[in-house]
C-alpha cells in the first residue's frame, strides 16, 4: 500500500525513512502537537514549499533545466486566488475560478516560454527566464488596478475558512477547531496529493526519459525521443504544480503581493532548498523545505545568541548576526554543489 | 594501405586550402545590418519626440547610459566569450565596485567637494582604480575557489556562481551594512552643459569617454596584440597552444580577473549614475546585463556594445514618451531581436 502510494520510490535509507516519517507525522498533526499561530504558520509554509520545491526539482533535478521563472508561476497561482476572491467576493466558486484561471494562464505561458527558448542551451535559457521573471514582477507591481500594486491584495475566503468560524466550542486535544484549523488541513491534504502526484510522474516512463535527457540529451534524442517535446512537457508540468502551490499560499495567507510570491529572494530560496536537499530526488524537497523553513524561523534566534556571545569580537559578531543567516546557507549551498551534488538526501541514500 | 590513403586525402586537403581564399573571410567581413539599428532607432524616435533639443538631450543621455551598461556588461561577455563560463555572480563585483567607490570617495571628500575639476577627476580616477583592483583580486579568488572546479559544466556553473552571488551579497552587507548609501557626484561633475538648446549632463560625457576607452581597449587587445592572439587561439584549440609552450591556464585566469575588474569599474560608473548604492544592486543589474548580452550575442564584445547602446537609447526615449512602457522596453527589445536573430545580433559561431 505504502509502496504503491510512493510509486515504488521508497526512501532506500533507514535514516532518511525515519526523518521523512517524523516530518510527515509532524506536519499531519501539527495543529495538535505545536499549538500557536507561529508554529502552525511555519508548518503550512513548509507544506507549500515542499510542493513548490518539488515542482522545481522536476525541472532542475530531473530534466536538468535551470529556470529562474519559477516564482512567476507561483505568483500566478497566488494572484489567481487573490484576484478572483477580491473581484467575485469570498466563496468556493471564486477559489475554483481563480485556481483554474491561474492554471490555464500558467499552461499557456509555460508552453510559450518553453517552445520559444527550450531549444537553446542551458545558459541561454537561464538568462532569458531571469529576464522574463523580472519583467513579470514589474508588470504585477505596475498593474495596480488589478493586482493592488506594491501593497498587494487582502481578501476574504469562504466563511468556513475564516479564523472566526468555530467548528466546536471546545478545543480537541489542545487544538481549537476553527477556520484556520480547517484551512491547514486543506493545505496539508492538497500538498500531500500534489506531492504524491509528482512522485508518480517522476517514477513513470516519462520521468525516466526526463532523467535520460538530464544525463545526455544528445543520446536521448538519438534513441528516438523528441527531447524538445519532453522538455516542454516538463516545463509545463513544473509550472502547473508551482501554480497550485501558489494557490495554496494565497489560501493560507489570505493575502498576496509581489514580495510574498514573486520576489527573486524566493527564487533563491527555492534554489538553495533544491540543491541542499537533493537534486533529482523528490524527497530532497521534503527534507530541504523542512530544514530550510525551520532554520529561517528558528535558527535566527540561535544566531542572535551567538552574536551576543561574540559581541566583543567585531567581525565575528557581524558574521553571526541573525540577519546574515543567508550567508551561512549560501556557503552550505556551495559546499553542496562541490561535495554532494545530489544533496543531503542523495548522500543518505548512497550510504545504504 | 595507409600509404594510399594519405595520398588520396592529400589532394583534397590541398584543394581545401586553395579554395579557402576564395571563400569570404569571416574575420574581415563586417555585418553592417545590426550597426544600422542604433541610428535607425534614434531617427525613428525623432518624430515622436518632436522638438530637436529634447531629442538631442535624450539621445545623448541614452548613449551615455548605454556606455555605462556596456562597461558593466563587457566583463561578463568577455568571460563567457573566452572561457565559456557564465558567471551569475558577476553582479557581486559590480556592487563591490560601487561600494569601494563609496569608501574611496568618502575618504577623499576633500577632493570630491573641492571646486576643481582636476581634483574631482583625481578622486574619481582613484575610486575607479581601487575598485578595479579590489574586484580583480576578488575575481581571482572567485575563479580559484568556485569557478575552476566547474569548468565545462554549465549547469553547475550557474548553480555555484549563483551561490557565490548570495554569499558575496551577504559579505557586502557585513562590511558596509545592509542599508542604501548615497554616492554623490563630485562637485564639478554635477549639472549640465548646454549644446545649443540641448542640455547634456556632464557626468554623461565622462561616461561616454570611459565607455569608448574600454571598448577600444578591448577590441585592440583582442584583435591587435599577441596576448589577444594567444587568448583567441586558446579558445579555438587549447591543447595546441599549450603544446606550443604557453600557459593557457594563467592566461584564462587573467581573463577572469580582467572581467571582474571591468565589473568593478562598471559598478563605480553605475553607482555614480544612480547616485546611491545598495547591496542588492548586483542582482538588479544582473537582469539588465543579461538582456544586453543576449541581444548582442553571447560572448561578442561588439554585440554587447551595440546591445547596450540600444537598451540605453530605448530606455531614455520610452522613459520620456511612455514611462510605464520604459520598465519593459529592454525586454521587448530583447524579444524583438531574438525573433530577428535567435542567437543575438552577432552570434559567436564557435560556441
The CATH topology of chain B comes to ABC transporter involved in vitamin B12 uptake, BtuC
Largest sheet of chain A: 2 strands, antiparallel
Number of helices of chain B: 14
Percentage of residues in strands of chain B? under 5%
Overview of this protein structure:
The complex is a heterodimer of chains A (352) and B (351). Chain A starts with a helix and ends with a helix. In chain A, helix 4 packs parallel to helix 9, helix 4 crosses helix 15 and helix 5 (70-88) packs across helix 12. Chain A has a single domain (2-351), classed as ABC transporter involved in vitamin B12 uptake, BtuC, CATH 1.10.3470. The longest helix of chain A is centred in the C-terminal third of the chain and has 28 residues, at 282-309. Chain A is mainly alpha-helical. Chain A contains 18 helices and two strands. Chain A has helices spanning 2-5, 14-28, 30-33, 37-62, 70-88, 92-117, 122-142, 144-147, 179-202, 205-215, 217-223, 227-253, 258-261, 264-277, 282-309, 314-320, 325-339, 343-351, and strands at 153-154, 255-256. Chain B is mainly alpha-helical and 351 residues long. Chain B has a single domain, classed as ABC transporter involved in vitamin B12 uptake, BtuC, CATH 1.10.3470. Chain B has helices spanning 2-22, 37-49, 52-83, 90-107, 109-113, 117-147, 154-176, 202-224, 226-236, 238-243, 248-274, 281-296, 301-321, 323-340, and strands at 181-182, 192-195, 198-201, 276-277. Chain B contains 14 helices and four strands. Chains A and B meet through helix 7, helix 14, helix 16 and helix 17 of A and helix 7, helix 12 and helix 14 of B.
Amino acid at each position: 500500500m505504502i509502496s504503491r502510494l510512493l510509486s515504488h520510490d521508497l526512501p532506500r535509507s533507514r535514516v532518511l525513512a525515519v526523518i521523512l516519517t517524523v516530518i510527515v507525522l509532524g506536519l499531519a498533526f501539527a495543529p495538535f502537537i505545536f499549538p500557536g499561530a507561529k508554529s502552525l504558520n511555519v508548518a503550512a509554509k513548509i507544506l507549500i514549499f515542499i510542493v513548490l520545491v518539488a515542482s522545481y526539482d522536476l525541472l532542475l533535478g530531473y530534466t536538468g533545466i535551470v529556470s529562474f521563472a519559477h516564482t512567476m508561476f507561483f505568483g500566478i497561482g497566488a494572484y489567481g486566488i487573490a484576484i478572483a476572491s477580491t473581484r467575485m467576493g469570498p466563496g468556493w466558486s471564486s477559489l475554483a475560478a481563480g485556481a483554474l484561471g491561474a492554471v490555464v494562464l500558467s499552461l499557456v505561458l509555460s508552453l510559450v516560454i518553453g517552445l520559444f527558448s527550450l531549444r537553446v542551451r542551458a545558459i541561454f535559457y537561464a538568462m532569458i527566464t531571469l529576464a522574463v521573471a523580472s519583467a513579470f514582477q514589474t508588470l504585477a507591481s505596475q498593474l495596480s488596478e488589478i493586482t493592488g500594486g506594491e501593497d498587494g491584495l487582502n481578501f476574504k475566503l469562504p466563511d468556513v475558512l475564516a479564523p472566526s468560524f468555530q467548528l466546536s466550542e471546545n478545543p480537541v486535544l489542545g487544538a481549537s477547531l476553527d477556520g484556520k484549523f480547517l484551512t491547514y488541513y486543506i493545505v496539508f491534504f492538497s500538498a500531500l496529493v500534489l506531492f504524491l502526484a509528482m512522485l508518480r510522474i517522476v517514477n513513470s516512463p516519462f520521468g525516466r526519459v526526463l532523467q535520460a535527457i538530464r544525463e545526455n540529451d544528445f543520446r536521448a534524442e538519438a534513441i528516438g525521443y523528441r527531447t524538445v517535446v519532453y522538455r516542454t512537457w516538463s516545463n509545463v508540468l513544473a509550472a502547473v504544480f508551482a501554480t497550485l502551490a501558489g494557490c495554496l499560499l494565497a489560501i493560507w495567507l489570505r493575502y498576496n503581493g509581489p514580495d510574498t510570491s514573486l520576489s527573486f529572494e524566493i527564487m533563491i530560496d527555492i534554489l538553495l532548498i533544491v540543491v541542499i536537499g537533493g537534486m533529482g530526488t523528490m524527497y530532497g524537497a521534503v527534507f530541504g523545505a523542512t530544514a530550510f523553513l525551520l532554520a529561517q524561523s528558528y535558527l535566527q534566534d540561535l544566531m542572535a545568541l551567538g552574536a551576543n556571545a561574540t559581541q566583543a569580537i567585531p567581525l565575528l559578531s557581524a558574521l553571526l548576526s541573525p540577519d546574515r543567516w543567508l550567508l551561512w546557507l549560501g556557503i552550505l549551498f556551495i559546499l553542496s554543489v562541490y561535495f554532494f551534488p545530489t544533496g543531503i538526501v542523495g548522500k543518505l541514500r548512497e550510504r545504504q | 594501405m595507409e600509404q594510399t590513403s594519405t595520398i588520396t586525402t592529400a589532394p583534397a586537403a590541398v584543394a581545401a586550402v586553395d579554395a579557402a581564399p576564395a571563400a569570404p573571410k569571416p574575420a574581415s567581413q563586417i555585418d553592417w545590418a545590426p550597426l544600422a539599428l542604433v541610428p535607425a532607432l534614434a531617427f525613428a524616435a525623432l518624430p515622436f519626440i518632436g522638438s530637436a533639443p529634447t531629442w538631442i538631450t535624450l539621445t545623448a543621455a541614452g548613449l551615455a547610459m548605454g556606455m555605462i551598461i556596456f562597461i558593466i556588461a563587457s566583463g561578463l561577455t568577455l568571460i563567457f566569450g573566452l572561457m565559456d563560463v557564465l558567471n551569475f555572480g558577476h553582479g557581486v563585483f559590480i556592487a563591490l565596485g560601487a561600494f569601494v567607490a563609496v569608501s574611496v570617495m568618502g575618504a577623499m571628500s576633500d577632493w570630491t567637494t573641492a571646486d576643481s575639476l582636476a581634483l574631482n577627476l583625481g578622486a574619481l580616477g582613484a575610486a575607479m582604480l581601487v575598485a578595479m583592483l579590489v574586484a580583480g583580486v576578488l575575481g581571482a579568488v572567485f575563479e580559484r575557489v568556485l569557478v575552476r572546479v566547474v569548468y565545462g559544466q554549465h549547469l553547475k556553473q550557474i548553480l555555484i556562481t549563483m551561490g557565490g552571488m548570495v554569499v558575496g551579497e551577504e559579505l557586502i552587507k557585513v562590511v558596509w551594512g545592509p542599508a542604501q548609501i548615497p554616492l554623490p557626484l563630485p562637485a564639478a561633475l554635477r549639472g549640465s552643459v548646454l549644446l545649443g538648446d540641448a542640455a547634456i549632463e556632464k557626468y554623461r560625457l565622462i561616461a561616454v569617454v570611459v565607455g569608448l576607452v574600454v571598448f577600444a581597449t578591448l577590441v585592440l587587445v583582442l584583435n591587435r596584440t599577441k596576448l589577444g592572439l594567444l587568448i583567441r587561439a586558446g579558445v579555438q584549440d587549447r591543447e595546441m597552444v599549450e603544446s606550443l609552450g604557453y600557459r593557457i591556464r594563467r592566461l584564462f585566469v587573467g581573463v577572469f580577473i580582467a572581467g571582474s575588474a571591468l565589473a568593478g569599474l562598471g559598478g563605480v560608473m553605475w553607482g555614480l549614475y544612480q547616485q546611491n548604492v545598495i547591496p542588492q544592486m548586483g542582482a538588479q543589474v544582473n537582469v539588465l546585463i543579461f538582456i544586453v548580452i543576449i541581444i548582442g550575442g553571447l560572448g561578442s564584445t561588439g554585440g554587447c556594445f551595440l546591445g547596450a547602446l540600444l537598451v540605453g537609447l530605448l530606455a531614455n526615449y520610452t522613459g520620456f514618451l511612455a514611462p510605464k512602457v520604459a520598465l519593459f522596453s529592454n525586454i521587448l527589445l530583447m524579444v524583438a531581436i531574438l525573433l530577428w536573430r535567435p542567437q543575438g545580433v552577432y552570434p559567436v559561431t564557435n560556441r
